[in-house]
């Protein structure tokens, strides 16, 4: 939505006063699994299993309105994201189904206590120290004060997507 992109621009512009190398994300998602490597001959059975597991899952809303700073496991990238403040239970149910499929293929499951979030911007290196504290409070003030942010940051989950290489698979929720 145009309004979301306006909010993103405000947040990134402000955060760049603390870390000039921040780049805005071009696509937005909320992860329900870690990135895993699928062998080519596993892709079709993996997708079928995901489809079966997710078939009974229902649509729901969540709210992602809490600004938070993240780093990847290797501390080679820093992200600014919007953490989910409502809808955590439903997301955990989805993760449980995805984890079962990952276990079938002996792949690593999701983090035990995940912080569900949508990444907005990123940079190389661990620059979380520059973004936390004052910058984070200012970014949260921007989100809280943005017109219609309550509606804008309310996300309806209608489908789950799985990306494998350059292919996307969609699983509609009931």
Automatic annotation (TrEMBL):
Identify the domain of life. Eukaryota
A single GO cellular-component term from the record reads: nucleus
* InterPro entries membership: Cyclic_Pdiesterase, Usb1
Q: Which Pfam families match?
A: HVSL
Q: Which reaction does it catalyse?
A: a 3'-end uridylyl-uridine-RNA = a 3'-end 2',3'-cyclophospho-uridine-RNA + uridine; a 3'-end uridylyl-adenosine-RNA = a 3'-end 2',3'-cyclophospho-uridine-RNA + adenosine
BP terms from Gene Ontology: U6 snRNA 3'-end processing
- Annotated Gene Ontology MF terms? 3'-5'-RNA exonuclease activity; lyase activity
What are the alphabetically sorted keywords of the record?
Hydrolase, Lyase, Nuclease, Nucleus
Q: What does this protein do?
A: 3'-5' RNA exonuclease that trims the 3' end of oligo(U) and oligo(A) tracts of the pre-U6 small nuclear RNA (snRNA) molecule, leading to the formation of a mature U6 snRNA 3' end-terminated with a 2',3'-cyclic phosphate. Participates in the U6 snRNA 3' end processing that prevents U6 snRNA degradation. In addition also removes uridines from the 3' end of U6atac snRNA and possibly the vault RNA VTRNA1-1.
The name under which this protein is listed is U6 snRNA phosphodiesterase 1
Species of origin: Psophia crepitans
